[in-house]
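Please supply some protein, with fold tokens.
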Amino acid sequence: MSDTPVLAFGPEDDCYHQLSDDPYETETNWWSFNIPERKIGCWIHAPYYPNRKTITWRIFAWDDEGYDPARMAYYRKVEEAAMPDAPDLRDIAFPGDKAGPGYSLKMIEPGMKYHLLYEDPSRGFALDFTHAGLHRPHRFPPGKPPFMQTPHFDQLGHVEGWMTLRGERIRIDGIGVRDRTWGPRGGPYAASPKTYANDLERVKHPGGARWREIERERGRGRIQYIFGHRADGTGFLGFARLQDADADGWAPMNAGWIRRDGEFGGLDASKSRMKSWRNPRTGWSTHMEVDLTDDMGRTMRSEGFVVSSMSEAGYGVNQLMRWDIDGGIGWGEDQDVWNGKHFVRMLDALKSVR
């Protein structure tokens, strides 16, 4: 899975890019980590709109005591804050709002090591940590879903530092993932422009449980992104193609990796798959099986269970996952993205009693 020179990322990619005059061009920086002993997952996510000169950012932490913004361990979002032309992403303090300042990001080693700092005294919340990459950033293959044209990479890292939660200082020391994506988005999110005579035509492999059949309807914008790694970085990452799942619920996986003994192998989409089971009350996954093969012929089987969940809108969900990986315990996430109306249809079928 080594990058060819044309696909490799360099020090210049620590800066912001601008590829078009599209007002919806977007560039993100995303940081995630977890604190397994406390069932805590945490995100920092900041999409920047260079042609609108604004940024929206969110910081949130969740545990098993509440999934919505009012009940999460911490949640704050700043929308469309003004940003100057070409801010230096290598050393930046993001704009805040009336509630307080934003977070700061400083590059320590190009492409590899970063320091992030944030404080919200009114909530007794703070973050102070470094993300040290375990490998150079890897680009997902261009021309394959879900990133057909926009450059995108994920990077595993050792995240070390501190979280202050409700005034309590909590140690951070584990594996985290960061990613970057940039380029035109072509306007607000919209479902596939393809028209269908009926909903059944949206399903590639009809049959099976009705809720699973609805789940794999095509053209609904479904994305499910999962990853899990042990402390030494052994693990996997990839996207499940629910639209191509079979009637039994096994969905192929692509655009990801197996990592073992410090070596990456790209997922073989013809031999890599995931199956999840959903809670009929929430509609969210409860546990998963993952059966993977990479382009070097290495295999990895893993089973994961949800530990805690968060949902901003009540349908799409991010979940902290505990994974059994090659005889050891790993941690990661399930990111399950839905169109709201599609999710409701699936959940109605999942709750049906007759």
Summary: The chain has a mean pLDDT of 92. The first helix runs from residue 210 to 215. Helices lie at 210-215, 340-351. The longest strand covers residues 168-183.
